[in-house]
């Protein structure tokens, strides 16, 4: 050491006594030499330090309010460089801490290391364990996503069932009568301030007492005594590195710590589960019907924790120690069993066939799996929207979801339309590609290709898949397709033998010469193109392709407006029944002006029996919003707009991609 | 050097007299107040949620014509203004009810979707003859009672909400019947339905 440095250290030592402190800290005697089995306590300390570091940096980017919590976590995870790593480390290190804690605790009990004079330190240790659980519970809510929200809601509802003070405790915990801003501010204060403070306040005496009593060496000693520094510290550091490696591997392997869709009190999350290490408690509760709940939620867990605190005194005799070890084994075994059972219940449907006997179990599991997939699908979409150049509005990401046809369309359709209409990918469109469900939704949202199927078992109205697109128009001009079940051939359709059908069939009559047939086909092809372009469902078409189509459409428009009469034997054309711009009359068939355009469809759903549409020929379809006074209507304009946009495949696409089908 | 140290740590006894007693008292009081005041201010604010009361808004949920008397549950969102601390959300979805109208009944019954066990969202699949809670497998019949009675995890059946029918006439001389419900929040986990306060 250079003399300058030495004098600096001397100066410091004179004022602080740092040398003896350091000596005290490092030159601890390790009886029997350093061993790997002594590393667990240290790894916990290091894991906690890691949590403090990552937590502090996360805190710098986190904003606790219902409109910003999910949003800021999203930003950390997806926009800030390295954010995914930071959050992943914090997330998985929390898991690692629980595992390390279990090992540390089991070892202490097994070795009887709680015996005098270490009783007090054991008690502090159990308290520390509870603080760590508290950190985990509070941390789960902070992203304010569906998963955390619903799990916490169940947790705090359970707390409210505690005898006497329950409801008050719940109010204090969530900062009011409902979950909201103050739930987040309180949970953050607990998670980042109160609990870590408490943890440090307990950890300092825990370590100090540990030093005072010395390491509890396990007999037989393997060799001569060694010093903490560097022998044991090296092993500790290597173990800590191992833990970090595992956590890193998990972070990278899993891609990222999960962030589900933003919390929405009005949308159930049927896959709400606590973090895996609390699954056993969740499963345990299923055993206590009705009011016996208090036993499952408070009495038994309370008794177990009390027993843990009393372990050092119970373990004073040999029999007592055996009891403690027995308790430990039963607890760990029970936890493992319950956890396995919980997982088996949830994933039952993936592992077993459905039978009469297990149908309830199977269906419950299937519902869980569906909900989970649905939740992933929603999360993926809302994240994609938040990443789009539009970003998140000031009202928060929930608004993004509420106003998104891609997410809301299927729900509204199921609720209001699927009683009669089906939404099935029409057989002729089945894509050759096998989509796995995740890929499927991604493809759908990226391409504005509406691939979500909502199948009605006995449809009594047309299949609305691909409504207004090119094929839809073509089908209504095709003598075969117009009468299939996807169009006018659905069950009990009055249109199956209607005038449109006979008009189309006659127009393609068998006695046509080759040349005439060609002219007819060409005419109808042009008409479908014209209708299609006017409907505006052409977002998948390349602009160059669209320009070419425009020529054909011009011809088509002339044909609709009367020109068709010259091509057809019958001398009839569209405007004999339909109105088209200034030609034709309303009253006998729907208006073809802007047929299946957004405006047309909205008006149609509002009142299909109006003169502009089917009038008196309307087949059973209810008028969803016929009145000017919104109170009288079943659906508001926003909902109708969402349904229409979804049917038409009109939604924000997260990224500009080459259209997959460009014909 | 050593002697000096001992001298310093030697404990001086205080001779008791009236003046020192008041000195000590003043020290304790002054210090106590200095610490307690901020503490009390904090605790009062912290406890303030206890004063908050739950309101049970009356809400229009549907038109009667949307609930045919086929005994099938239909789910409707509860839309009402919602205040969360400093934010007011106009027309926010704050929950969900199932309306069921049995054959020949003029009025539907309303069942809140919040599970009486621990508050999960009870689900219903069209066509099913049971409501099912996704969390701890409670099942309820379509009238809200527990499928397996006391063997069910839920301590009571689904909570019914008071229903009121109101007719409205619009400017264009049409009449419609609206279904209103009082959206009451009940405590979970008890045999009886107790309102959350
Ligand atoms: S919350 Fe419904 S069964 Fe537990």
Automatic annotation (TrEMBL), chain A:
Q: Name one GO cellular component term.
A: membrane
Any idea where the Cytochrome b/b6 C-terminal region profile domain is? Answer: 218-317
The record's annotation in SUPFAM superfamilies points to: a domain/subunit of cytochrome bc1 complex (Ubiquinol-cytochrome c reductase), Cytochrome c, Transmembrane di-heme cytochromes
List where the protein spans the membrane.
Answer: 38-62, 92-110, 122-142, 188-210, 237-255, 294-315, 322-343
Q: Localized where?
A: Membrane
**Annotated keywords:** Electron transport, Heme, Iron, Membrane, Metal-binding, Transmembrane, Transmembrane helix, Transport
Designated name of the protein: Menaquinol-cytochrome c reductase cytochrome b subunit
Q: Which organism does this record belong to?
A: Bythopirellula goksoeyrii
Automatic annotation (TrEMBL), chain B:
Q: Tell me which residues make up the Rieske domain.
A: 96-166
Superkingdom of the organism of origin: Bacteria
Write down the InterPro entries for this protein, in alphabetical order: Rieske_2Fe-2S, Rieske_2Fe-2S_sf
Q: Which residues cross the membrane?
A: 21-47
The UniProt keywords, alphabetically, are:
2Fe-2S, Iron, Iron-sulfur, Membrane, Metal-binding, Transmembrane, Transmembrane helix
Q: GO molecular function of the protein, one example?
A: metal ion binding
Asked if the record carries the keyword Acetylation, the reply is no
Which Gene3D superfamilies does this chain map to?
A: Rieske [2Fe-2S] iron-sulphur domain
Protein's name in the database: Cytochrome b6-f complex iron-sulfur subunit
Which organism is this entry from? Bythopirellula goksoeyrii
Q: Read off the lineage from the record.
A: Bacteria, Pseudomonadati, Planctomycetota, Planctomycetia, Pirellulales
């Amino acid at each position: 050491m250079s003399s300058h440095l030495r004098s600096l250290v001397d100066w410091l030592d004179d004022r602080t006594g740092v040398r003896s402190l350091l000596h005290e800290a490092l030159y601890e005697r390790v009886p029997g030499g350093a061993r790997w089995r002594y590393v667990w306590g240290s790894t916990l300390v290091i894991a906690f330090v890691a949590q403090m570091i990552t937590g502090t940096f996360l805190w710098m980017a986190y904003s606790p309010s219902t409109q910003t919590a999910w949003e800021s976590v999203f930003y950390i995870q997806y926009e800030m460089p390295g954010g995914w790593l930071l959050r992943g480390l914090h997330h998985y290190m929390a898991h690692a801490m629980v595992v390390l804690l279990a090992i540390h605790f089991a070892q202490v009990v097994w070795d009887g290391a709680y015996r005098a004079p270490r009783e007090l330190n054991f008690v502090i240790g159990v308290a520390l364990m509870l603080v760590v659980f508290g950190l985990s519970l509070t941390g789960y809510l902070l992203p304010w996503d569906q998963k955390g929200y619903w799990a916490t809601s169940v947790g705090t509802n359970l707390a409210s069932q505690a005898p006497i003070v329950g409801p008050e405790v719940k109010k204090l915990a969530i900062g009011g009568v409902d979950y909201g801003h103050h739930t987040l501010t309180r949970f953050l204060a607990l998670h980042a301030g109160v609990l870590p403070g408490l943890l440090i306040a307990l950890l300092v005496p825990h370590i100090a007492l540990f030093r005072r009593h010395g390491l509890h060496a396990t007999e037989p000693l393997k060799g001569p005594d060694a010093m903490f520094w560097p022998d044991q510290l090296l092993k500790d550091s290597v173990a800590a590195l191992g833990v970090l490696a595992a956590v890193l591997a998990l972070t990278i392997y899993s891609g990222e710590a999960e962030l589900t869709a933003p919390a929405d009190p009005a949308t159930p999350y049927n896959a709400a589960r606590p973090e895996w290490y609390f699954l056993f408690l969740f499963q345990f509760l299923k055993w206590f019907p009705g009011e016996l709940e208090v036993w499952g939620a408070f009495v038994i867990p309370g008794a177990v924790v009390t027993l843990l605190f009393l372990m050092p005194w119970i373990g004073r005799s040999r029999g007592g120690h055996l009891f403690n070890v027995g308790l430990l084994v039963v607890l760990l075994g029970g936890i493992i069993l319950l956890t396995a059972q919980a997982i088996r219940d949830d994933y039952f449907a993936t592992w077993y066939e459905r039978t009469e006997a297990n149908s309830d179990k199977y269906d419950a599991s299937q519902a869980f799996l569906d909900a989970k997939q649905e939740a992933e699908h929603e999360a993926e979409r809302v994240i994609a929207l938040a990443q789009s150049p539009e970003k998140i509005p000031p009202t928060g990401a929930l608004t993004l979801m509420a106003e998104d046809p891609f997410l809301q369309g299927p729900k509204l359709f199921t609720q209001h339309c699927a009683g009669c209409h089906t939404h099935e990918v029409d057989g002729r469109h089945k894509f050759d590609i096998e989509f796995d469900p995740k890929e499927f939704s991604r493809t759908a949202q990226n391409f504005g290709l509406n691939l979500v199927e909502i199948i009605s078992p006995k449809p009594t109205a047309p299949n609305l898949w691909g409504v207004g697109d090119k094929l839809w128009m073509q089908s209504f001009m095709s003598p075969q397709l117009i009468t299939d079940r996807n169009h006018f051939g659905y069950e009990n359709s009055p249109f199956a033998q209607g005038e449109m059908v006979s008009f189309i069939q006659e127009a393609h009559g068998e006695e046509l010469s080759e040349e005439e047939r060609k002219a007819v086909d060409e005419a109808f092809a042009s008409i479908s193109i014209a209708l299609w372009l006017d409907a505006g469902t052409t977002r998948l078409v390349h602009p160059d392709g669209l320009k070419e189509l425009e020529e054909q459409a011009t011809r088509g428009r002339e044909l609709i407006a009367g020109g068709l009469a010259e091509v057809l034997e019958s001398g009839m054309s569209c405007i004999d029944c339909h109105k088209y711009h200034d030609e034709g009359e309303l009253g006998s068939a729907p208006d073809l002006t802007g047929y299946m355009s957004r405006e047309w469809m909205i008006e149609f759903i509002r009142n299909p029996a109006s003169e502009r549409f089917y009038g008196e020929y309307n087949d059973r379809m209810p008028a969803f919003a016929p009145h000017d006074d919104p109170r009288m209507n079943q659906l508001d304009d926003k909902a109708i707009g969402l349904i229409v946009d979804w049917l038409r495949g009109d939604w924000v696409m997260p990224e500009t991609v080459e259209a997959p089908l460009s014909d | 050097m050593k002697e000096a140290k001992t001298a310093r740590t030697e404990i001086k006894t205080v001779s008791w007299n009236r003046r020192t007693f008041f000195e000590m008292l003043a020290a304790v009081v002054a210090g106590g107040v200095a610490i307690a005041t901020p503490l009390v201010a904090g605790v009062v604010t912290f406890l303030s949620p206890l004063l908050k009361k739950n309101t049970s808004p009356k809400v229009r949920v549907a038109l009667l014509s949307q609930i045919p008397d086929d005994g099938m549950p239909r789910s409707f969102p509860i839309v009402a203004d919602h205040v969360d601390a400093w934010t007011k959300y106009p027309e926010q979805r704050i929950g969900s009810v199932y309306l069921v109208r049995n054959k020949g009944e003029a009025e539907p019954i309303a069942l809140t979707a919040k599970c009486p066990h621990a508050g999960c969202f009870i689900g219903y699949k069209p066509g099913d003859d049971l409501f099912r809670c996704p969390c701890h497998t409670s099942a309820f019949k379509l009238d809200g009672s527990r499928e397996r009675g006391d063997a069910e995890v839920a301590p009571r059946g689904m909570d019914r909400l008071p229903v009121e029918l109101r007719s409205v006439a619009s400017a264009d001389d049409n009449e419609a019947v609206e279904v209103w419900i009082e959206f009451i929040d009940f405590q979970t986990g008890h045999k009886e339905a107790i309102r959350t306060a």
